[in-house]
Design goal:
The protein has one domain. It has three helices and nine strands; from the N terminus they run ββββααβββββα. The protein has helices at 52-65, 70-79, 138-149, and strands at 3-9, 12-18, 32-36, 48-50, 82-87, 103-110, 113-121, 128-129, 132-133. The strands form three sheets. The chain has a four-stranded antiparallel β-sheet. Strands 5-6-7 form a three-stranded antiparallel β-sheet. The two termini are 23 Å apart.
């Protein structure tokens, strides 16, 4: 679930999009997904500025926890060798070409094993598209939230 938090700066109001339901002052910088110009729903890509710190945090979590994901392990066993792509789940049933903005990153698979040191983040990945905000693999999402909620 995403939360929209109002930010008052001088005479201007903007909105932080977060995974954490908290006061903006209590959220670590990597916990802010980005900023929206308005509070209207849905937020459109042109009204949203992603937070580079969150994107870096997201990719770090994918790199750390992706190889442990039951879904990625299953796909690696099926594939045996090659590349395995981490696809944003907002792309419900990817058949054929997946838009670059929906590919989070990729791992190498060797001998049916996902190798974490081979993770490559996709620079074309977008947290928000016309299909909506990102939707992660459930396992990776749980681990990301755990990492985000750990005390500093």
């Amino acid at each position: 679930m995403l939360y929209l938090l109002e930010i008052q700066e001088e005479d201007k109001v903007s909105y932080a999009v977060s995974l954490v339901p908290s006061d903006i002052r209590d959220i670590p910088s990597e916990g802010i997904i980005g900023r929206a110009k308005t509070a209207k729903n849905p937020i459109l890509p042109g009204e949203f500025t992603p937070n580079p710190e969150f994107l870096k945090f997201l990719h770090n979590c994918v790199e750390r926890f992706g190889p442990l994901s039951p879904n990625l392990k299953k796909e690696a066993a099926r594939q045996v060798n090659g590349l395995i792509y981490v696809i944003d789940a907002r792309n419900r049933t990817p058949i054929g070409d997946v838009p670059p903005e929906d590919i989070i990153g990729a791992f190498e698979v060797r001998g049916s094993q996902v190798h974490p040191e081979t993770y490559r983040a996709n620079p074309n990945y977008r947290l928000l598209t016309l299909k909506g905000f990102f939707i992660l693999d459930k396992f990776i999402e749980e681990k990301l939230l755990e990492a985000l909620n750990k005390p500093a």
